[in-house]
What does this fold into?
Amino acid sequence: MARIGFIGLGNMGGGMAANLAKKGHQVHAFDLAEAALARAKEAGCALAGSAAEAARDAEFVVTMLPAGKHVRSVYENEVFDAVPASALLMDCSTIDVASAKAVEAAAGAKGLSMVDAPVSGGIAAANGGTLTFMVGGEASDFARAEPILAAMGKAVIHAGGAGAGQAAKIANNMLLGATMVATCEAFLLAQKLGLDSQTFYDISSKASGQSWSMTSYCPVPGVGPTTPADNGYQGGFATALMLKDLKLAVEAAHGVDASVPMGAAAESLYQALANAGAGGLDFSAIIKFLDGKIGG
Ligand code: NAD
It folds into this structure.
């Protein structure tokens, strides 16, 4: 069993750290929030007084923080100078590709090994240990990371070199955001043309318009499997987080001169939904915005 420093015990990190402790790892956990620390203690983690203390003596460091600036500050100001040279650093946060590459390069300059390992799956998957990890970094570092990440997830995939995990994550979520908007538009068009939503689902889910947004995450209540739409668009994947990922995708696209008109359109629609006060609703609530029932 490994000694793991875990920094960032929020909605996602709290469940992930608990799963590592449950599997018998020695987890030394830190967060700025008292409530997060209390939950980690209850789950069997030892508490650290700072990020540096969590990293000291660690064989692995896992971070699950809000954004690139937090990741850079935690590693550059605390972890790099505290962690043993043999440790493997794993950032599981969703952050911009440029920050991921910069922090991995800074780790390398100090002789430390680091991977980016963002996740697909929300709070339920973090709690249930069923996340999917997309890992960017050297193959030998991936091999070391895999068994630790597997203790928190159902799949661990090597995406490529430094930053490739973040690239996979934001490209995937840009596709998800755009297909969700398109799926919602199609349902609303079908309704206005007089089609029953269940009938449209039965046809399109077996035809060329089929997508995960339709068949696994249908935005229409009472149609398809049970989804946040059946619960007033509560729970699921918050609009604010989808907007964060779309902004990261569009920003990354600008940096490499990639054309993403559908991603940019999805970003502006999710921005409008968030501006209408619905940032906490599941991202499938974009159907209510398109239908004029939120905002407008
Ligand atoms: P969260 O805000 O609930 O948790 C972040 C935690 O980091 C907080 O507890 C905060 O106190 C802590 N923190 C911030 N700065 C810190 C510092 N300097 N030192 C120690 N702790 C610090 O966020 P979350 O929902 O757990 O998301 C974490 C990351 O996972 C984000 O990058 C998010 O985009 C990504 N993500 C979230 C979801 C989701 O459904 N929530 C899904 C996939 C990926």
Q: What stands out?
A: Residues 115 and 188 are 42 Å apart (CA to CA).
